[in-house]
Write a structure and sequence with these properties.
4 domains; 3-stranded antiparallel beta sheet; 16 strands; HNH endonuclease; nucleic acid binding; endonuclease activity; zinc ion binding
Length: 451
C-alpha cells in the first residue's frame, strides 16, 4: 500500500491546499454519517446482535476509535435525534463535531430558569456562535455562559462543577505513568497558570528555537513544578513527615560507576559480556522486605523498580538516611537523616553558576539541582568544588551520557562533551563563562568557536 503521503509529493502548493480542504469536507460528511449510523445501532441493536454490553464498547472494540471517543459519538447521535436544528447544521458540515456535542449537552440540560419556549432561540444563538471554520470552542462556551447568566440559573455550569472532576494516574506496563483527567475551569486555570512559566519555550542564546513540542514542554514543566513543590511547598504532613520522593537502594549499588553503566548501555549488541553482573530477579521483590536480596535496582514506594542510574541522579541533591539491614532484610538500625546539599550551599552555587551551568542553558537557579561531580557514594565531598548547578534536563544528561564536568582553575564549572559531540573532546566553560560556545539542550553541538 505504501505511505499515503507519496500520492501528494508531486502536487503544487495550490493543489495541496485545495486537497486538504476537499478532504476535510469529505471527512465532515463521513463523520456525520457515522454518528447517524451509530445512533441507529444504539436504537435498534442489542447485545445479541453485536455481542457487547453497550454500543460504546462494541464500537471501540471493532474500530480504532477510543472508548472515550466512542462514547461521545453515541452521545451526540442520541442528542441529534432530539434536536433536529442541531442535526441539520451538523449534517451540512456547518458546525464541528465538538461544537455540536457542546450544544446538544446544553439542550439536554438547559438552565432551570429558562422556559421551554426559549430553547429554539437559544439553539439558534449557539449555532451562530459555532458556525464556520473560524468558530472556536471557547466562543461557544462563552455564548452558553451568557445564556445561563440571562436566565439566572442556580445550577452550577458544567465548566465549574467540581463534582465532575476526575484524575486518573495509572502505571503502565513499561513502567511509565499515564495521566488523564477532566477538571473544572478554576482547577484548570490554576494548573495552566502554574505550568505557564515552566512550559514556556526556551530559545538558545543565539535565537535558535526550542526544539521541544508543546506537549513535551508541558511534561517538563509538570516535572519541574512537582520538584519545586516537594522541595519548597507547604504540603503538610503525611505519615509523620512532609510528602517527599523516597528511593531505596543498596549502598553497594549506589557506588556503581556511572561511566561503566553508560558504557554497558551503549555497548554494541554483538559485543556481549561473558561475565554479566547478576541483578537478581525484580519479580521476586514483592515489597521492601525483599530488597536486600536484589542487586542492581533501586525501589520507589509508588512506582516500584528504578535504575541505579536514576537513584544516583536523585541522590545528588537529597536527604539521605542510612538503614542497616540484616541478612533477612529486616532493619537493624536507622541512621540520622542528613541533607547532601544545604540551603546555604545552594545559595552559593546560584551566586557562582547563575543558574544551570550547562553551556547554552542558564535556566534559573530555582529550577536547578545540585549535582555532585564525584558522587558522595563514591566518596565525593559535598562542597562547592565538587558541586555544580544543573536543570533537570542537563542533570539527567550528565548521569546518562558520557558528558563530564569538572571545576577549572578559576573554580568554575568546565564541561567535556562526548566524542560523538566533539571528536577531540574540547572542554567548554559553563554557561556563565562561555564565550562563543553553544550547545543544544540535547547535547548536540551547534557552534564550536566564536564567529
Amino acid at each position: 500500500m505504501g505511505y499515503q503521503g507519496d500520492r501528494f509529493r508531486e502536487r503544487t502548493s495550490r493543489e495541496l491546499l485545495c486537497d486538504a480542504v476537499a478532504l476535510s469536507a469529505k471527512i465532515a460528511v463521513w463523520e456525520a454519517q457515522r454518528v447517524a449510523v451509530v445512533a441507529e445501532v444504539e436504537r435498534r441493536c442489542t447485545r445479541e446482535d453485536h455481542g457487547f454490553a453497550s454500543t460504546k464498547g462494541w464500537l471501540s472494540s471493532v474500530t480504532v476509535v477510543s472508548p472515550g471517543a466512542a462514547g461521545r459519538i453515541v452521545e451526540l447521535g442520541a442528542g441529534l435525534a432530539e434536536h433536529p436544528a442541531v442535526a441539520e447544521a451538523f449534517d451540512a458540515g456547518w458546525i464541528a463535531f465538538e461544537h455540536a456535542l457542546v450544544i446538544v449537552r446544553f439542550c439536554t440540560k438547559p438552565p432551570k430558569g429558562m422556559p421551554a419556549e426559549a430553547l429554539p432561540g437559544c439553539v439558534a444563538a449557539l449555532l451562530a456562535a459555532a458556525d464556520g471554520p473560524l468558530a472556536r470552542t471557547d466562543g461557544v462556551r462563552t455564548a452558553i455562559a451568557k445564556l445561563e447568566a440571562i436566565f439566572e440559573s442556580d445550577d452550577q455550569p458544567a465548566s465549574e462543577d467540581t463534582d465532575r472532576n476526575e484524575l486518573y494516574v495509572s502505571k503502565t506496563l513499561n513502567g511509565r505513568v499515564a495521566i488523564r483527567g477532566d477538571v473544572d475551569a478554576v482547577t484548570g486555570e490554576m494548573l495552566l497558570t502554574a505550568l505557564s512559566k515552566y512550559s514556556a519555550p526556551h530559545p538558545a542564546a543565539d535565537g535558535t528555537r526550542d526544539p521541544r513540542t508543546p506537549s513535551r514542554r508541558r511534561a517538563d514543566g509538570l516535572a519541574q513544578l512537582l520538584s519545586m513543590l516537594l522541595a519548597f511547598g507547604e504540603l503538610g504532613v503525611e505519615g509523620g513527615e512532609r510528602p517527599h520522593l523516597s528511593v531505596h537502594v543498596h549502598a553497594r549499588d549506589l557506588g556503581q560507576d556511572r561511566r561503566e553503566e553508560y558504557a554497558r548501555r551503549t555497548r554494541p549488541a554483538d559485543n556481549t559480556d561473558t561475565h554479566p553482573a547478576d541483578p537478581g530477579d525484580p519479580a521476586d521483590v514483592a515489597d521492601l522486605s525483599g530488597l536486600a536480596d536484589v542487586r542492581g535496582i533501586a525501589w520507589s514506594p509508588w512506582m516500584g523498580p528504578l535504575t541505579v542510574n536514576t537513584a544516583r541522579l536523585l541522590g545528588c541533591d537529597a536527604q539521605v538516611t542510612a538503614i542497616i539491614l540484616d541478612e533477612h532484610g529486616a532493619p537493624l538500625s536507622v541512621g540520622r537523616t542528613h541533607r547532601t546539599v544545604t540551603r546555604a550551599q545552594r545559595k552559593a552555587l546560584a551566586a557562582r553558576d547563575g543558574g544551570c551551568a550547562f553551556p547554552g542553558c542558564g535556566a534559573t537557579a530555582a529550577w536547578c539541582e545540585g549535582h555532585h561531580i564525584r558522587h558522595w557514594a563514591d566518596g565525593g565531598p559535598t562542597d562547592l568544588d565538587n558541586l555544580v548547578l544543573l536543570c533537570g534536563t542537563h542533570h539527567r544528561l550528565l548521569h546518562t551520557t558520557d558528558w563530564e564536568v569538572t571545576i577549572g582553575k578559576t573554580r568554575h564549572p568546565v564541561f567535556t562533551p562526548p566524542a560523538s559531540v566533539s571528536p577531540h573532546r574540547r572542554r567548554v566553560p559553563g554557561h556563565r563563562h562561555a564565550a562563543g560556545q553553544r550547545f543544544r539542550c540535547n547535547g548536540a553541538r551547534e557552534r564550536t568557536h566564536a564567529p
